[in-house]
Amino acid sequence: MANILAFAESRGGELRKVALEAVAAARQAADATGGGEVHAMLVGAPGIGAKAPQLAKAGADVVLVVEHPALGNGNPEVAAATAAARIKAGGYRAAFFAASAQGKDLAPRVAAALGVSLASDLTSFALSGDALTGTHPTHTGKIITTILLTGSPAIVTLRPGAVRVTDQPRAGKVEALSPAIDPASAKVVVTSVGSRGEAKLDLGEAPVVVSGGRGLKEAANFKLVEDLAAAFGNAAVGATRAVTDDGWRDPSTQIGQTGRLVSPDLYVAVGISGAVQHLAGMRTSRVIVAINRDKDAPIFKLADYGIVGDLFEVVPVLTEAVRKARAGN
Amino acid sequence: MKIAVCIKRVPDMDVRFSIAPDGKSLTPGDLKYDISDFDGYAVEAALQFNEKQGPGEVVVISLGPDAAQETIRKALGMGADRGVLLKCDAPPFDGAAIAQALAAELKDGGYDLILFGRAANDTGNQSVGPMTAHVLGLPCVSAVSKLDIAGGKGSAERQLEGAVESLEFPLPAVVTIDEGVARPRLPSLKGIMAAKKKPLEVKPAQLGSVRLTIEKIELPADRPPGRIIGEGPAAVPELVRLLQDEAKVL
Ligand SMILES: Cc1cc2nc3c(=O)[nH]c(=O)nc-3n(C[C@H](O)[C@H](O)[C@H](O)COP(=O)(O)OP(=O)(O)OC[C@H]3O[C@@H](n4cnc5c(N)ncnc54)[C@H](O)[C@@H]3O)c2cc1C
Ligand SMILES: Nc1ncnc2c1ncn2[C@@H]1O[C@H](COP(=O)(O)O)[C@@H](O)[C@H]1O
Predict the structure, then answer these.
(1) Which numbered ligand comes closest to the C-alpha of B103?
(2) What's phi and psi for A21, nearest 5 deg?
(3) What is the pLDDT of residues B216-229, one digit of tens each?
(4) What are the CA-CA distances from residue B163 to residues A47, B84, B173 (Å)?
(5) For position A199, what pLDDT does the model report?
(6) Mean of all residue pLDDT scores within chain A
(7) Which residue of A117, A200, A231, B183 pairs with B212 in a disulfide if CB–CB is 3.0 to 4.6 A?
(8) Distance (Å) from the alpha carbon of B7 to chain A's nearest alpha carbon
(9) Taking the mean position of all CA atoms in its chain, how far away is CA A200?
């Protein structure tokens, strides 16, 4: 029987969805190895402990709350040192982090501090007595690698969406913990975390992603893509590197090999040729739609539904039709 | 500034991969190799800092087989001053083992700044940079999309999901480079000629213990072949019908 730690990611005093996924994964791992306890670690400004009940509901037996006025914006050195110290002192068999911007930053620090290795970005995993196996998309998604991680504790980051969160209520007993190092002693200081103020839905979490490419001809025409996204109601807007390079769109919206990875239910590619580097970021989408005037564009090799045509003619009609279809539902 | 850049030789992703009979590696005959994308960005960033801020040195370090000398020469052709190959048969998959070897080389180098790529194209692990920083006891900022260095201090931005994080840190430091910082220049003919004469030292890699290994690799399930459902606005009603009735996403 082994206890498992889950790092419960938060930002601006709110839990992130991946926090619950980490708890759900830890619950699975604990139950598969004899029913040990799941301890969720929550780090933030005073008041963050109020989120403990949500973690309990997802399966946390204990919530370790690390509150400090200097931790509101996050502090990677404090968070990593505190997680590592607790993992060591608590004798955990494994610790789960999200493969999010924050989790991917923290987990290697924690593993290094503990002198163990890290299994990154797993889409599935199985924990047994002395080993953890898991799948990890590598080579920009063109290969699925099954990894074997030995040694204890096993430090893991999980790809967002890899685990389903269900109600598995546990006691969620709150235990206060102090930062392992003085926040004032950290060398790296987060000076601000600015929301980009764009649509609330993050690209990685949106059920629908509508992306535009150079076929849109100029920045202003992205309005067509935004309108289509708005018609879906649950969509985020992405872009190709050609477009972010030209400054039409914020670089953070670039999808692909060197940009964001997305895997929505529906991906709509508007005026995008389908270069391998772009496909690397969206090829695992459940359904792909492409609108391109060149019938030989590589995106059509992948698109479940392709329309050959001028996007300036097709997209407004599609936007209207989607709006009507949703209003009819 | 004295800047080190850790660069990895990786297979080009632009080819059709097949799995070798061992089930754990790619068929070598299919492969071409190049510098990992973000590592190219990191070399460019290092060159630009020293071009703007006066003299310095850019040292590129790669851990890998003899053939990684080509990757190092490419970075020297871009303008880096010298290279170090930490030689081993093939780099392990375990970032912790690589970090030990890189840290052993970097430790006494007197570097102001040590740059890595955010992630290697092949492993996608995103672990070697922060792990090396830990071994060296240096501050680390990972996956930066913007980086400024002035007066012995650094400031950087990181892209979070839906937000931007701004950070400050003292030098020396380890920074891993994401999209946004720099685009690699192509080595000029003159650069390539000059690179042939630049120093490239070869030493055995002092790898740490390996605890993360590859059990097997597979190609992802094929998507069904693409299908063009029609032309122009006239195809829209059929698309909406398919999205509703077949794909059930609308
Ligand atoms: C190291 C490296 C990393 C990279 N990383 C990424 C990455 O992460 N993400 C990424 O996206 N790219 C990346 N790229 C760039 C990639 O190779 C392509 O250049 C880029 O994806 C092309 O973008 P695009 O499809 O918008 O433009 P193009 O390739 O120019 O395609 C435009 C398309 O629009 C169509 N079109 C034009 N007008 C119309 C019209 N009126 N109606 C309908 N269709 C029209 C054209 O037929 C064409 O197919 C990377 C490249 C390198 C070298
Ligand atoms: N074998 C290697 N030689 C030199 N640098 C490496 C090597 N492996 C990884 N790195 C560096 O570490 C970064 C992250 O690699 P990874 O953790 O494998 O994703 C790469 O972008 C390189 O900068």
Answers:
(1) 2
(2) -65, -40
(3) 999 999 899 999 99
(4) 22, 38, 24
(5) 53
(6) 96
(7) A117
(8) 16
(9) 15
- CB-based contact A205:A160 (threshold 8 Å): yes
CA nearest to B214, candidates B93, B98, B97, B122: B93
- pTM recorded for the entire structure: 0.96
Q: How far is A171 from chain B (nearest CA, A)?
A: 31
The CA A107 to ligand 1 mean position distance, Å, reads 33
Nearest to A112 among B130, B239, B250 (CB): B130
**pLDDT per 10-residue tile (average), chain B, 250 residues:** 98 94 95 97 97 94 98 98 97 98 98 98 98 98 97 95 95 97 95 97 98 97 94 98 96
Collapsed DSSP state (helix, strand, coil) of residue A26: helix
From CA A161, how far away is CA A99, in angstroms rounded?
10
From chain B, the residues in CB contact with A145 under 8 A are: 93, 214, 216-217
Q: Chain B contact for A192, CB < 8 A? A: yes
Tell me the three state secondary structure of residue A7.
strand
With a 6 Å cutoff on the Cβ, whether A241 touches ligand 1 is: yes
Q: What's the rounded Cα separation, in Å, for the pair B129 and A139?
A: 18
Spatial strand order in the sheet of A131-138 = A124-127, A131-138, A143-150, B212-218
Atom number in ligand 1 closest to CA A257? 8
More confident residue, B233 or A201: B233
Going by pLDDT thresholds of 50, 70 and 90, the confidence category of residue A129 is confident
CB of A39 closer than 8 Å to CB of A6:
yes
Q: How far apart are CA B194 and CA A196, in angstroms?
A: 44
Strand partners, A81: none
**Residue A126 in contact with partner chain B when CB distance is under 8 A:** no
Around Cβ A144, how many Cβ atoms within 10 Å? Answer: 18
Cα(B226) to centroid(ligand 1), Å: 18
User: Considering only residues 16 to 35 of chain A, which have any Cβ-Cβ distance to chain B shorter than 8 Å?
Assistant: 16
Indicate the residue type of B220. Answer: P
Residue B237's Cβ-count burial label (10 Å; 0-12, 13-18, 19+) is: middle
- Please name every residue paired with A67 in a beta bridge, in sequence order, or none if there are none: A44
Task: Verify whether the Cβ–Cβ distance A133 to B215 is below 8 Å.
Answer: yes
Burial A231-246 (b: 16+ CB within 10 A, else e): bbeebbbbbbbbbbee
pLDDT tier at A201 (50, 70, 90 boundaries)?
Answer: confident
Q: Do the beta carbons of residue A61 and residue A29 sit within 8 Å?
A: no
CA distance B181 to chain A (A): 10
Cβ contact, residue pair A307, B239, below 8 Å: yes
**Atom of ligand 1 at shortest distance to CA of A255?**
9
The residue among A276, A307, A312 with the most chain B CBs within 10 A of its CB, best to mutate, is A307
Report whether A44 contacts A7 (CB < 8 A).
no
Q: Which residue has the tokens 């539902």?
A: A329
Q: How many C-beta neighbours within 10 Å does residue A185 have?
A: 10
Query: Which pLDDT does position B116 carry in this prediction?
Result: 98
Q: Is B133 within 8 Å of B140 (Cβ atoms)? A: yes
